[in-house]
Amino acid sequence: MKQIMQWLILAALGNSVAIGAIIAAQPDAARRVELIDLLKQDCGACHGMRLKGGLGPALTPDAIGRLSIETISATILHGRPGTPMPPWQPFMSQDEAVWLAGQLKAGVD
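Above: the chain sequence. Below: its structure as tokens.
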């Protein structure tokens, strides 16, 4: 029983650290505006202006709900080889991609 409690405490701490890292990675206000504009304009060119799908798949919370923030941010940064999805790493940092992935999961107006 003691070992189970230790594992539960470690798991809870691990989740707190992961959530803290995502919150700490938030870009400043001006950069957040730039990233949302990039999302709506550049990503919207393929994923639809409302991100409900087009050439690329929908990026709505319902459509990407099963994907982790890590998976989404890796796709943003590295693209999908063999598909039209380009890498965006030259235009944003890892922290910015994680923030943008969180915005997608929460829903972007």
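The chain has a mean pLDDT of 87.
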